[in-house]
Structures are given as C-alpha cells and as structure tokens.
C-alpha cells in the first residue's frame, strides 16, 4: 500500500485536505494497482528518487512537495487505459500507442479537478514532453517545459530502465546511465539535470544508507 501523507510529512494544517483528496483518489490507485503489477513498486522508487534528488539539488520545500506529488500521480491517467494495453507483452501497435499516450492529458484533467492538486496538474500533464519537441501531448520545447517536469521525465525513464517490465529485463546501472546520457545528447532529456541525476544514481548505489526496500523516509517539507 502506498501512503501519500505519511511519507511526505505534509504540515498538519494541510494534512486533512490532502487526506480528503487521497480518500477520493484511493479507488483510482487501487484500480491501477490491479491493472499493472509493476505500478506500486515503480511509484515507491520514483517517489524516493524525487525526495532525495530534490533535496540534493536544494530545491525549495514547495518544489520538493510538487515534485513528490507529481511523481506520485504522474501516471494516474492510466486508470482510463485498458488493462490489455498496459500489460501487453511486446510493442504496442499504432492505435494502442495513441491510446496509451492520452494518459498524460487524462492525468492532468484528473488533477485539475482535485482542489489542492491543481498545483501538480501541469507537471502530470507534461511528464512526457521532451526538450527537443518530440514529446507529447503538446510537443513543447526547451523552456516551455518546467524544471520539475524535466526532472520527473528523467526519474520515470531511469526507473523504467532499472526495472523489470512485461516486455523487458532490468538494465544495469551502467547501461541505464548510458541510455540516459544518450537521450540527453539527442535532446530528449535535459543535459544538466541528467548529469546531476547520474551522479545521484551512483551515490545511491555506493551509499547503503540511501538504499531502499521500504517506504520513502518521513520528511518535513
Ligand atoms: Fe507516463
């Protein structure tokens, strides 16, 4: 079970609002858990990266909260994508791919309807945008994509590379970083953020205190 408020340490005065929203979202999250066996682990690891990398980059408390929540809900739009597409073994065909790509906009719309989650709606909707304009849904370029969205894109790709999926085995740390760097060189990822994240990923590997096999650490932000 993923715990939203517990793991992020949201200040008490806002906690009840987030609790209320979480209760509304819980059925959606449960649906996603059932649709995608990799979902929960992916979210836990990605949220850990968001918190720790955000801290390392000295982001403000507000930015870390937005990055954490945006990471937590980045794929919430997949709740409206058919299970057979999400779990398909092998590549998606053109129609299936188009359908799958709608999850970013769907996720943004879900967050826009959820009061305090308005602040992460753009982040959720733009996590597949790419600096060179090849991303979706809007094909934004360069500065049109927020810094947090660029970081979230790296986190999502890195965890996907390092994890087993229905269509692939996990890549090693070295292979994953090489692919990230290649994507940065091609303009698919922010070069500076990729460089910084690569250092962070190596640090996680060599520092057992930054390892994880449990919930993200409690943190007041
Ligand atoms: Fe996504």
Describe this structure in words.
With 221 residues, this protein is mainly α. It has one domain: Hypothetical protein af1432, CATH 1.10.3210.10. The chain is built from 11 helices and no strands. It is globular, with a radius of gyration of 17 Å. It starts with a helix and ends in a 15-residue tail after the last helix. The C terminus is likely disordered. Fe (ii) ion (FE2) binds next to loops. Fe (ii) ion binds next to loops.
Summarize this entry quickly.
With 221 residues, the protein is mainly α.
Write the layout of secondary structure elements.
Elements: H1 4-8, H2 12-35, H3 39-56, H4 61-73, H5 83-86, H6 94-101, H7 103-112, H8 121-125, H9 147-162, H10 173-185, H11 191-206
Bound molecules: fe (ii) ion.
Fe (ii) ion is lined by residues 74-75, 103, 127-128.
Q: What is the residue-averaged pLDDT?
A: 85
Enumerate the distinct ligands: fe (ii) ion
Q: What's the tally of helices?
A: 11
Topology order in helix (H) and strand (E) letters: HHHHHHHHHHH
- The third-level CATH topology is Hypothetical protein af1432
Biggest beta sheet attributes: none
Q: What is the H level of CATH, i.e. the homologous superfamily?
A: Hypothetical protein af1432
Helix content estimate: 55-70%
> How many separate domains?
1
Question: What distance lies between the first and last C-alpha atoms, to the nearest angstrom?
Answer: 22 Å
